[in-house]
Structures are given as C-alpha cells and as structure tokens.
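Notes from the 1:1 (GR / supervisor)

We went over the backlog. Supervisor wanted to see one worked example end to end before approving the batch request, so GR pasted a single chain during the call. The sequence is below; no edits were made to it. Supervisor asked that the structure be written out right there so they could see what the output format looks like.
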Amino acid sequence: MKKLTYISLFFLLSFPAKSFTQEQKQTPITIALNDWASQIVISYAIGDILEKQGYKIHYREITTNKQWGALRLGEIDLQLEVWEGTMAKEFNRMVEQKLIIDAGTHDAITREEWWYPAYVEKLCPGLPSWTVLNQCSNLFTMDYSGLKGVYITGPWDKQEGKRIRALKLNYLLKKIGGEAFKPTILLAIKKQTPLLIMNWTPNWVERRVEGHFIEFPPFEPECISVPKWGPNPYETMDCGNPKNGWLKKATSKHFPKKWPCAFQLIKNINFNNQMISEASALYEYDRYSYMDAAKKWLQTYKNDINQWLSAKCLL
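Structure output shown during the call:
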C-alpha cells in the first residue's frame, strides 16, 4: 500500500492538474449588465468575441452598487465600463485591497456636466460660459418656476444644489429618473425649446445631436473643501465637474488564473469615446435591440477588434 501511495504521489507531482495548465473554458465567464445602453451593448459585443474564442459566457443584470460585492465574491467576472465620476470610490478601494483587479484604462475620456442643444446659443450669446446663465435664465423657466430657470438633472447625487447656491445662479433644480433622460432631450429638440440638462460623455447624444457643455470654473480638489478657493470665497462647489475622467475595466481577482488568455484579451480591449457613444446611439437613437446593436457595433469596429485579437496569448 505504501509503494502504491508513493507512486501515486510521484505522478501527481510530475503532472500538474489540468486546471492549472489550461483555461477553464467550460466554466462560464459572467459579465455584468448594468442599466445603461452603452454598457449593455458593449458587454454583449465582447461576450460574442469571447464566445467565438471558445469561452462560455453568462450575463447577469446587476446594479452598479451591488456589482462590487459580486465581483469580490466571483459571482461577476467582468465589468467593461467603470466610470470615474460615479464608481471611483468603490473601485479604487477594492483594487487597493486586492479584492478585484484593475484590467486597464480605456482611451475614452469621461465628463458629466450641464449641457444644452446647440441651437440655444443663438438665444443666449456668450454660451457656453456659465457667466451668462443668469442673463438667460428666462429662457429656461417652467410653469412653476416663476422667474427662475430650471436645470434638469438625473437621480444621481452631484451636489448640483450647492453649485447653484455657490455660483448664485437664478435656477431651480429638477430631478428626473434615468428613463426620462432621452425623451426629455428628444422632445426639446423636436420643438426647438431651450433646455439645460445633465449630460455626460461618451453618450448617444454626441453621436446624433449637436450640443455643448456649460463651462464652469475649472475643477480643482480645493473647490469641494476650501471655501476661499474660486469665485465665491464663502462657499464650496463653486466650480464645474472634472473634465478628464477615466474609464476602466474591472475583473474578479480569480480571472487571470482561470482564463489567462481571455484576461490578456480584456487588457487589449480599448474603447474610445466614439466606440462607446456609438454603442449607446445604436440602441437609444437608432432603436436596434441590444443584441442587434451589438452585432452592428462589432461590424463597425471589426478592424479595432482584429487588433485586440492579434496579440498572441502568453500562457
């Protein structure tokens, strides 16, 4: 019995388990699906690429708040659109604690700011400078706002009320749900009515609608903590949002060991602003289904995809 045990041990040590030398292509890679168009379309597109490389893919709908725990536990393996403006705090914390992996930064540059359709500039000369907003506040009034203009924002906490107070803007804040964002913009454009609304880049709007961001005093970290910084020496938040936010990819900490070649592909993947905004526009504006939009997107950017796939996998 002892001899057999030693022989068995010899073979176990001489030939490493298959799971350590080959990728677990039978184990599905679970990709997060969040609640905005570009992330969903691109996730389906990259999932299709991985499937063609022989991997099994599973998709899971999940909120941005819940995805961090799922990534940490390995219930989610891949998130392709991590936005600095809304996700940096949790992402950075978990990367620093080695709970998840930073799989690289895209070329795309993000920004979230007040936005207006281009035709508004004819009605309010001086735009996009914030300094003319009070002169033009009458353009943006609503039935209930009296003499104040109305700025429309989403459900996100961006401290917009503080900015309005700090810069002494003659505006009220109106919050809408994310589902109301597109119809609000499209209705204003159809009627050519003035509109001030929270917008971001990359997004479908920049691919299908001409418009511009308001240029507030440039953001500096001191703006949110030092009252004496900026045009109002008594208030913080007297500045705009950061203009050059990053966009990253995140994976579970086990991803590189389970799927080393797939991980190299994920690191090679690099979206620019046009790629992401087009993914959003195909669904939001052109009205393709998510799956059909993904197919269209793959065809449009096939040259970029071929470059991502050209690098040899280093096992």
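Supervisor's comment: Residues 37-52 form the longest helix (16 residues).
Batch request approved.
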